[in-house]
Amino acid sequence: MQWRVLAVAACVWIAGCAREPQAPVSFGPDAEAIIAAASEFNEASAARDVERLMALYHSSAIMISPNGQWMNPGDIRRYYEAMAADPSARLTVEHASVTQVAATDGLAYSAGGYSEIHAASEIGQVRISDGQAVRVWRREDGAWRIVVETRTPQSVRVN
């Protein structure tokens, strides 16, 4: 439910920020650049490369955790450093099922599924969550960067 609210909010934000009435587009070079950045995110995550991951975030980025905690760029860095140090951790964000761009204002959003694995507190077990990820993107220094991100789990299990 939370991801739907954020997706709608992102659409309203993008539409409301337009200088000229313009429908967001889901194709073209800007959408392709966002899709490429999402692929880069998965490659950097698999490589446990915190610097590459952080390069994909806007300088004023926030991440909203499933428990409602708002994380600033320093918190986001610590989150990925903890994931990089956890040998069982994996994070994969699917190719977005929706990518909308208001290119004249340098804003976009994408939404799609994700899968995240972390060590659980129980020895030898892992926590697996699957759900929906929503990202709001903004142009910074000529590149699309994540400015707001949230992941809403739809299933969580410990194996």
Detail the topology: elements first, then pairings.
Blueprint: H1 2-17, H2 29-46, H3 50-55, E1 57-64, E2 70-71, H4 73-85, E3 90-93, E4 98-102, E5 107-119, E6 126-140, E7 143-158
Parallel strand pairs: 1-7
Antiparallel strand pairs: 1-2, 3-5, 4-5, 5-6, 6-7
Overview of the molecule:
By secondary structure, the chain is an alpha+beta fold. The protein has one domain (2-18, 29-158): Nuclear Transport Factor 2, Chain: A, CATH 3.10.450. It is built from four helices and seven strands; from the N terminus they run αααββαβββββ. The protein has helices spanning 2-17, 29-46, 50-55, 73-85, and strands at 57-64, 70-71, 90-93, 98-102, 107-119, 126-140, 143-158. Strands 1, 2, 3, 4, 5, 6 and 7 form a seven-stranded mixed beta sheet that branches. The longest helix is centred in the first third of the chain and has 18 residues, at 29-46. It is globular, with a radius of gyration of 16 Å. It starts with a helix and ends with a strand. The model is unreliable at 11-24 (pLDDT under 50).
Assign the structural class, choosing from mainly alpha, mainly beta, alpha/beta, alpha+beta, or little secondary structure: alpha+beta
Order of helices and strands: HHHEEHEEEEE
Using DSSP, what is the number of strands? 7
CATH fold-level name: Nuclear Transport Factor 2, Chain: A
Helix segment tally: 4
Largest sheet descriptor = 7 strands, mixed
